[in-house]
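User: Earlier you gave me the apo prediction for this protein. Now I'd like the version with flavin mononucleotide bound, so I can compare the two side by side. Same sequence as before, with the ligand SMILES added.
Assistant: Got it. Here's the input I'm using:
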Amino acid sequence: MKKRILLGVTSGIAIYKTLDLVSMLVKNDYDVNVVMTENAKKLINPIIFETLSKNKVYTDVFYRDMDVEVKHIKLALNSDLIVLAPLTANTMAKIANGIADNLLTNIVLAHNKKMILVPSMNVNMLNNPITQRNIKQLEKDHIVMESDFGHLACGDYGKGKFPQAKRIFEQIESYFVDKDLQDKKVLIGCGATIENIDPVRYISNFSSGKMGNELALCAKRRGAIVTVVCGNVKSDYRDFGINYIDVKTNEQMYEQLNKYFNDTDILLMPAAPVDFKVKNKKDTKIKKIKDCKNYDPIEIEENIDILKNLTKNKKKQFVVGFAAETNSVKEYAISKLKDKNLNLIVANDVSNKNIGFNSDFNKVFIISKDEIKETEVLTKREIANKILDSIVEKKCL
Ligand SMILES: Cc1cc2nc3c(=O)[nH]c(=O)nc-3n(C[C@H](O)[C@H](O)[C@H](O)COP(=O)(O)O)c2cc1C
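And here is the structure of the complex with flavin mononucleotide:
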């Protein structure tokens, strides 16, 4: 069944940005009911919210349907989650003090469950001790999202900016996920490393980092504290409260993972470190005309095995390795499980062009010392959750 979001909209300048959030929610199959304050209606016509949400917008506390139901109680009870965005300093102050003088504040008082609050305002209004006290008070019962830093509509520069719609959307998605990894420290090695040939050229591989990023997102949604040591790949999840540390070479990736490893509950290593580095790396660019005919051949040497070195110091950590193979997938994976002292290994066949590298889909074996599970072809996000389910099932945490 569709999740029902009651979106409370107050008269902040960022009101137009909430339209993006509404369409994002509707596209992702949420049922959105918008309630606006009277002042919000002065900034934007409710018809726009009605068109995007495909639901009537409510404002008046004394409005009655034909069936004499008490509207604010019905709206409060029927919603799975209330989100207030943008939330003015004014309405925030009312909520923090239990004031119910319009439909929205009445609904909030009748709902009595955890809400997501998205305050946004001028930096001086935000820094005012009264506003700060109200935020602290509301944080005891609700998720109060931190506002962004930047140029504000009033011309000031500072904190108070409305967060991007995708960050609010992510907070909403996360609200509905079971927190079975609450406060677990999850460390992830993600993406390809690179090894320089000269200052402008390098050796690397085709890893997109998608599996590592999906694991990071899913672990974060399940309540974990997530650190990603990230190679030469992009991520759309950098604003979602995940700690991303960017590295280039194997040595840098090892150094950063090693720094966090002792204090980690779960290490996930879908990274694709380059197996070799260049022995005769040049400090200046190899020139095409001058050097090409008569340059030194590139000599390679073995690179540090990150996972094997990390697990030498393994104590309480639950360690998950990944194996991308082209043949005898299960056999290689099982030998890697033992060789690298892993608790679990996730293996897939990269010779299949439709899955694996760069694809959004994969099909894997999840192998422990006493069990082999095989998944269907699934999205990488679904695979990430299957892997995390297997870790939770092992009850080693
Ligand atoms: C153009 C305009 C933009 C405003 N932007 C904000 C804002 O971003 N944040 C805020 O707290 N108040 C803002 N205000 C002030 C509120 O609208 C004002 O405090 C109002 O009484 C709040 O009413 P409400 O909370 O019932 O919507 C703005 C006012 C105007 C006219």
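For your comparison, keep in mind: The pocket of flavin mononucleotide is lined by residues 10-14, 37, 39-40, 88-91, 120-121, 125 (CB under 6 Å).
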